[in-house]
Each structure stands twice: as C-alpha cells, then as structure tokens.
Write a structure and sequence with these properties.
This protein is α/β, with parallel strands linked by helices. It has helices spanning 13-30, 45-49, 61-66, 121-137, 153-162, 172-181, 183-186, 211-223, 231-236, 251-262; strands at residues 2-5, 34-36, 54-58, 72-79, 89-90, 92-97, 112-114, 145-147, 168-171, 189-194, 198-199, 203-205, 239-243.
C-alpha cells in the first residue's frame, strides 16, 4: 500500500480537504493500491520524503536537488493566478505586518527574521540568495535574530502577525492559498520584496516504486486538469493543471545556493 500526501500546500483545513479529494481521485484513476494520509507539522517532513512507500507527495525542490538517489518525479503544479504565467514556478514573498513602518527590504535589517527550515527553498534558501549581496555589502550580519525553524509557511505568517518576528519569506503559492481562503489573515501581511522565480515543488514517489504504478499516477495527475468533477477542487486550490518536469530543472536551486555561498552568506543571519 502506497501513501499520498499534500502537506506542503495544505495551508488550512479547507485546502487540506481539497488536496485529499484530488489525491483520492488520482489514486482511483490510477488504480494503484494507495491511500491519502495525514502527516502534519511538527512531524519532520523529511521523514515523509524518505518513506519507501511514498507514492505521491509534494517535495521541496532544494532537498530534491540534493537527494541521492532522487525520488521519482511525477508532475508539478501550475498555479492558476496570472502572476505564474501558466508555468510550474513560484517564488518567496518577503512579508511584514501590514501596519509595520517598513516598505523596502533594507528597512527590516537589524530586526528579526523568521524562517521555516534550512533546507527549504521558499522558506530559507531563496531568501538567502536575495539577501547575500546586502550581507556582503554590510559586512555579514543583517538581522538582530533569526526565528525558527517554524516548519511551515503558515507559521512564518503567524509569527510575523503575532510580533514574534518582524519579517519572513513566504512561499508564494501558499501565500495565494491563504489569500483565497483566509483573506482576513492575509490582510495583516504586506509584501516588501520578492525573490527570483524558480521551479515549484513537484509531486514525487519513492525511488523503488513499480514503474507501472509511477506511469499510472503520473497519467492520472495530468488527466486531473480535464475532470469536470474536480473543477471546484481545482478552483479551491488555485490549480490550473499538472505538467511534466525534469530533474535538471531543479539543478538551478543548487546553483543559486552556491552563488550565496560565494558571497560569504552561508546562513541567514
């Protein structure tokens, strides 16, 4: 029995229910022995990715690029908002409280930076790349403190809103899902910068899964864009479709991390 999970983009109860519906449809369509499971924070997400029975789950692109052997790529989501340009990309929004006095990235230097986990692209590495030139120009340290690991984009948003941190990177797709389902929460945040778009987290399976199951799951994900019964689910998830992606697409994440290393900014600080 394989497992499926969409923890990375289950930003609240509404999206978690929608993802479960979509994954159960994919499993039924693929006719594989699998089940959608709950796997919530604070359980370490790396343990989910390491499971040998992993059949279909979102995986952050940075640890995917580092992995050896690599999980099997199934497909990647194309978010429906126009800002994504119909491509499987995303970025990090650098957010502060909406009532904060800061309007530019440099305004938050000397304050407290929240992050998810260090091997997260959207919650750490993208911000590190963005901030590295500033750190080099200013002699190294940019912030009074870092707040984390907070595990999820939602916790970064909540920490900033609650005043536990002053600024943090927020996965753009997660941010859009929060905007769609919890506008009152999203309204308490303001974006003062964005990082360069990079390939969005893909859905993956464990390396040892049978090729036939991989093919069926991949085909079902691609077919979900045309399923009339999934139209409300796709709308709730701001999801246009899934597309095929290549392992080499994610190599750029390591290149960007190495660029920050060369600038002498190996960790957010």
């Amino acid at each position: 029995m394989l497992i499926a999970n969409a923890r990375m983009y289950s930003v609240n109860a509404q999206t978690a229910a929608a993802w479960r519906t979509l994954l159960e449809w994919v499993i039924d369509r693929a006719e594989v022995a699998a089940e959608a499971i709950d796997y919530s924070a604070p359980d370490p997400i790396a343990s989910l990715w390491a499971r040998p029975d992993l059949g279909c789950a979102f995986m952050c692109g940075y640890p995917y690029a580092l992995a050896a052997p690599k999980p099997v790529l199934l497909a990647a989501p194309v978010p429906s908002p126009g800002a994504y340009g119909g491509k499987p990309v995303y970025w990090s929004d650098i957010v502060v409280r909406a009532d904060a006095p800061w309007v530019e990235l440099s305004d938050v230097f000397g304050h407290r930076l929240a992050y998810t986990i260090e091997d997260s692209q959207s919650g750490y590495q993208a911000a590190r790349e963005l901030l590295a030139p500033y750190a080099r120009a200013r002699g190294g340290r940019l912030f009074a403190a870092t707040v984390g690991p907070l595990s999820t984009p939602r916790r970064v948003a909540e920490a900033v809103i609650a005043g536990e941190a002053d600024v943090g990177p927020l996965d753009s797709y997660a941010h859009d899902l929060i905007r769609a389902h919890e506008p009152e929460l999203a309204a308490q945040l303001a974006t003062i910068a964005t990082t360069t778009p990079t390939p969005i987290p893909p859905l993956v399976a464990a390396p040892g899964i049978a090729i036939a199951d991989i093919d069926h799951l991949r085909a079902a994900l691609l077919a979900s864009a045309e399923a009339d019964e999934l139209r409300p689910v796709r709308s709730a998830l701001l999801l246009d479709r899934f597309v095929l992606v290549d392992s080499e697409d994610y190599a750029v994440l390591l290149e960007r991390a190495r660029a920050a290393d060369r600038l002498g900014y190996p960790r957010l600080a």
